[in-house]
Amino acid sequence: MTLEDKIEQLLKPTVESMGFDLWGCEYLPAGKHSTLRVYIEKPEGVTVSDCGSVSRQASAILDVEDPISNAYMLEVSSPGMDRPLMRPEQFKAYENALVQVRTAVDVMGRKRFKGKMVQVSEEGIEVEVDNEIYPIAFSMIEKANVVPEF
């Protein structure tokens, strides 16, 4: 279980009781400038006031449970239009969308992909870039985002 998974388990009941979905968490270690991002969502959208309310509740829980031993900044926000994709069900919800993916290791000679996510399976995704299909296992994905199309 990752640190993010542990934090999501701690926060999910409270966030949901406040009327939001917990989209996910990202921990970005950087010494005393580390950041914990918590993404929340609700059908009618998330306001700055919503983020403040969730931030206060999350902060209280994290202070008690102390899952991160060093100092960090807590940020609560909406996942936005360029939302990060973190779990298989999130990838599935955006099948056939334009995505940007960065992998930890080379996949067919590259680590960065921007193209249509043409398929999502239990093991991973397939992204079409320049008429070529790249199979990418979930375990290889470092970061993935939806690319907004206007």
Walk me through this protein's architecture:
The chain is an alpha+beta fold. The chain folds into 2 domains: 3-77, RimP-like superfamily, N-terminal (GMP Synthetase, Chain A, domain 3, 2-Layer Sandwich); 88-146, SH3 type barrels, CATH 2.30.30. It is built from 3 helices and 8 strands. The strands form 2 sheets. The chain has a 5-stranded antiparallel beta sheet. A 3-stranded mixed beta sheet has the order 1-2-3. It is globular. It has helices spanning 3-17, 48-65, 88-93; strands at residues 21-28, 34-41, 72-77, 98-107, 110-120, 124-129, 132-137, 141-146. It starts with a helix and ends with a strand.
Average pLDDT confidence is 96
**Protein structure class:** alpha+beta
Number of DSSP E strands: 8
Span between termini: 37 Å
Radius of gyration, CA atoms, in whole angstroms: 17 Å
Question: Could you state the order of secondary-structure elements as H and E?
Answer: HEEHEHEEEEE
Number of helices: 3
Silhouette: globular
- Strand arrangement across the biggest beta sheet: 7-6-5-4-8
Largest sheet: 5 strands, antiparallel
CATH fold field value of the largest domain: GMP Synthetase, Chain A, domain 3
